Amino acid sequence: ALPSMSQPIPVQITVGNAQDLKTLKSNLLHTLVRVEYNGAVLGDSPKTNVLTDGTAEYDFSTSFEYCPDGPNSLDVLVQKPLLLTLLEVTSKDKKKTDKIAPLAQAVVDLLPLLQGTVLTIIVCWLDFIFVSQAGLEVTVSAKELLLSATQFSSGNLLSITLEAAYSVPEAFTADAQQNYMACLQMPAAGEKELPLLFKNGILKADGEKEPFPRPKNWPLGPILAPDALNIPDSFIVGGPYEDEDGELNKSEDKEFRSQAESARRVVWDMETRCFLDADAVAVLQTRIAECRHWPVELCRMSSGGKGKGSKSDKKDEDKQIAFHGVAYVNMMHLLCPGVKQIRGAFRVFNYEDSEVFEKTRVQYSIFRDRRSQLSLGKERLGTSPSNKAAPSKTQREDSNAMVRSGEARGTICGCMLSISLCQHWLQTARHREQCFSPQQYSEAGTFLVMEIKLDRPLVPKRLREELVQRVKELIPPRPALAPRTEGAKKVVENYHKRVTSVAVAILEEYHELFGKQLLDQGVMDHETMEEQKRQLNYELNTSGKYFAFKEQLKVKNCLPSPWHVLSLPAVMISVVQRIARDQHSIQAWLDYGAFCLLYEDATKAQECFQQAVCLDPQHTQSLLLCGIVCVKLQTYEEAEIFFEDACCLEPSSIIAWTLAGLFYELQNNYIQAERSFREAKKLLRAKLEEERRILEAAEGEGKKPSSPSTEPATEWNPRMVWYGRDLEVHLISNPCSGQRHFPLDQGYLPLDQHSKDGKKKFPLCFLFVEVREVSVSSPALSCWAVHGVPALLTTLCAVPPQFVHKALAHELLSLQGGPTCAYYLALGWTYQLREDLPRWEECLLEAVRIDPLNPNVWAQKGHLCYLKKDFDKAKDCYERVISFEEDAADMHFVYLRLGSIYLDEKEYGRAKHIYLLACDNSASCLTWLGVGIACYRLGEMLEAEDALSEANALNNTNAEVWGYLALICLQGGRELEAEQCYKYTVKVRVRGLRAAPTAHPAPWPAGSAAVPRDGPCPAGVAAEPPNSQSRAARP
């Protein structure tokens, strides 16, 4: 609706040439065209001859006046089309009036007039059976713009399509006198309301099929050519129930929806439109923000003449409405950025004033209180037999008088009247019982399917360019990194030049002290040379030049001061060294940021992740990690920008959408969360369908199928290279299957380290969130089975635990029949990381109760007993795991811990066997070290040396490997080799001690195959034994 205009604007309609009219009727001679709009006939063209080629030239013009406050307002203009009727003119006798018979009809949509002044189109005539090839040229024009460019750009076009009401009550009948209606109101400018009415719903019987595709209809009454009601190029496009915005979109509703859509239903398939100006758009946004649910009323009306009755009957008729129901449409989706359409199913309930007001804050009924705005004409809403079920006293007296009069005139008439009254009362009671059951719609399960669509979203979605600019504003500028243009040869040359420069400087110092030595002075004796050397060293040390020359010979550390190696815990040193080697490595910066999160330094972690974004603004993992660390720092607006940018950058990423959904849930923005989760589920369904197709194709070709989901995921790259240390890494995956472990010395991240206060710290495990299938048709959120980095779960302080709790809550809600064994394993894993051993034990007890034959349960129970230092029970659990035919997910770690227990109990034969199994599962320095120790204890020196050599080949910086090699060499009498191994042992051991800060001394040598019995050591990490008490370190 628009403000009033002083003068109406004429809209001119010109009917031009027609073609192929003979396709409608071969002997067609004379025709005319009738033009109608909004129920009024604008005029008829002159009678025109149809030429032999089927053409006719009408050259006829007519017009109507557009006025915002008149009958042909803007609301009417966008809702109703121009109706053209082709009439055949025949005359058998000149003295008689010509006969006119309709042949076909066509419609012209006037909506394009909102954007211009002239509309010229060719319409096709629609006869009463099919679409013909006959065409007609029509031009519609206005003398001036109906809307200015500013009005059009600031407004919005709203289209509402009411498709059908399904699972309707049994009392609904296909009576020609009955009509089914629905209505809702939209805000207009100021305090005005615009009612949008859907009439002429058609009751269809069971099994009656719908056309495909289903065309949308104009909001017009019955016309001669039913196909002319179809809006051109506008169809109802359905989709999976899970993608809808309304109710009944869960997997458990699918069967009910399918059955209801083929049963009795009331079909409209009608679209009505209205143009909202800037004020109306603002009111719409405000109304939705104030109350998300909007009422859509439903009722049955009777079309026909009014019956006789007293004034009190007519008053009661106004108060009661037959089958008055209401559906509550959640409009909040339209306030999500970029959303301009919602479609879904909405349950219908009996209309109750208190309930409607509670949910929608609407205090009136459109059908009951504002019927005058609907222009229903002779149609009556209060048609229920209940109005007749309670006749007034006067009516009862009149009836009794008629009966008595009948008895006086004759017995037959009285009997007939009595039978008629009895039948009337029986029918009334039966119909009253059917129509006015208190829960008629709820008992039937009635629901409406409708679509609400805007031409432009109420809240524009930020463009990718805008998001990139916002990210740049959030990340402070950093100096550009020096380009890596120098190769190895150039580096060696520069080093040689530096050595030459230092040598020349030292020679000049020598000349200053002793002068130049001439060749004719002869050779200097040895004692003089040593004395000069001593004096030169003294002068260089006392003057500080010695340390200056020494620094010149060192390779400069290219890291900025905040990343100085000596200020970091030992576990971070190798990561920093990676950055020093390659400052352009995004993965190195992400790894460093992950370690900073582990050590509860979110600010430094944010700097690392931001540096990764600076290196590549289109790196999805970096953006997501920036969002997560912003949640940790409680800068939620910045977090939203990063999550939104990641989803915009990679819209096919399941993880990005799922993490965004979890974030919106944390902000109580459930509509945005629902839409993000729905997008993730849609992507997952497509992925699973593709995997199923590949699997079926492989089976059809007789090949061994390989499902992509069983292979290591490549969407995220979890590898983190660590140089100079030897720890086992175990990437947490599905607790039931698919868990993989990677030896650190082959280039993967170490997980086990210590906190700043020197206590044992949680491992750097990664919690990845994705959407997975709990059942065939029910996608749900899961907190495991992952692809990459986005949610680091270390402590409650390191990463917001709400991500974990929300993911597990979704998993619990999606499960049918209660929590599963996998759920308790995942929940227990979170308690394990928080060192909450009692609650972890409770979860494992439930898991054992549900599935006592699951090897993963017993593996986790063994880990729990191990951390509680109950090694006997831990050994029993590990041995039970090994006895199962199916391996546990973390067999590698089970082997390592069980082997360490056997070594401690001096069962060296069993220890050797277990460590060999670990080598077969995933060979690493630690596994071969365990084999070497066991063989050494058994006196199998040759096998021990071979095993330790394998360990040394995988990692030559493990002090314990060199120590046992030294012992083996001593046993064999190879003293020179033993001395060399011993020197390497001291060298790598001292290097490790110096690398660690004094505040965090390493409590045991790096890389020992045995496992400590103090401090937490969760699944996936091979811990190291204490230094002095190591049961494997002592020869």
Task: Explain how this protein is built.
- 42% of the residues lie in helices and 19% in strands.
- The protein has an eight-stranded antiparallel beta barrel with strand order 10-15-12-11-16-17-18-20.
- It has 33 helices and 26 strands.
- The termini are far apart.
- The longest helix is centred in the middle third of the chain and has 31 residues, at 670-700.
- It is elongated and about 150 Å long.
- The chain has 1035 residues and is α+β, with helices and mostly antiparallel strands.
- This is Cilia and flagella associated protein 70.
- It comes from Serinus canaria.
- Residues 377-402, 998-1035 are annotated as: Disordered.
- TPR repeats lie at residues 586-619, 855-888.
- Residues 383-393, 1026-1035 have a biased composition (Polar residues).
Total of helices: 33
Major sheet description: 8 strands, antiparallel, barrel
Rg, alpha carbons: 42 Å
Number of strands: 26
User: How would you state the average pLDDT, rounded?
Assistant: 75
- Beta content comes to 15-25%
Q: Globular, elongated, flat, extended or rod-shaped: what is the shape?
A: elongated
Poorly predicted ranges: 305-319, 380-436, 556-570, 707-799, 993-1035
Provide the helix percentage.
40-55%
Structure keywords:
single chain; 1035 residues; alpha+beta; 8-stranded antiparallel barrel; 5-stranded antiparallel sheet; 19% strand; elongated; disordered C terminus
